[in-house]
Write a structure and sequence with these properties.
The protein has 192 residues and is mainly α. The protein has ten helices and no strands. Helix content is 79%, strand content 0%.
């Protein structure tokens, strides 16, 4: 019997994730079942469960494939990146990958109820805040030579950038697509 390669396993997980995204977009997070994903993907129940044991595990995979690479990119960015650049880069994940903001908003809604999904979302937010902190520290250090002041500036920037990103997600989920750069430009214009 031939061995299944990691490349094959990843391709199958990607196939399942895309089927899940289509189902989630159509039916919502709450009403999408593993059976729906089985039907959408054309794979067997066993094939789905051999890769994902639950919707939470599937959500974890989607975040890892769509959001985390963008966070890694932010952390590795050389030189100074401003809060405006960070926000624009974060929001581009939706236009660059096709990840529907509606799904993200629905996962947030489900996470407010509690349970495993809430814990997963809290881990994701912690990872997001860590990446933003790493990306913004060079910018903050150019603003002040005091280390404590730089850390406070980064913390303040994160507290501003994250809700602005959430606003973009909610706005585009409810009212339709919006170019991330145009959104960020309009926020800057409104606040200056």
């Amino acid at each position: 019997m031939p061995r299944v390669t990691e490349k094959y396993r990843k391709a199958r997980r990607d196939e399942i994730a895309l089927a899940a995204i289509r189902c989630l977009e159509r039916k919502g997070v709450h009403d999408t079942s593993i059976a729906d994903i089985v039907e959408e993907s054309g794979l067997s129940t066993g094939a789905i469960y051999s890769h994902f044991s639950s919707k939470v595990e599937l959500a974890r995979y989607i975040v890892a494939e769509y959001l985390f690479p963008r966070l890694d990119q932010l952390e590795r960015s050389a030189g100074m990146i401003t809060p405006r650049d960070v926000l624009t880069t974060m929001l581009a994940v939706f236009t660059d990958t096709g990840l529907p903001p509606r799904i993200v908003l629905q996962f947030w809604g489900e996470a407010t109820i509690g349970g495993e999904l809430r814990e997963e979302m809290l881990r994701t937010v912690a990872r997001l805040r860590s990446a933003l902190g790493a990306a913004l520290m060079p910018w903050a250090e150019l603003q002040t030579s005091d280390a404590a002041a730089a850390e406070a500036l980064v913390a303040d920037a994160i507290r501003a950038v994250v809700p602005l990103a959430q606003g973009y997600v909610a706005n585009t989920a409810l009212f339709g697509p919006r170019d991330p750069r145009e959104y960020v430009d309009s926020v800057v214009a409104a606040l200056t």
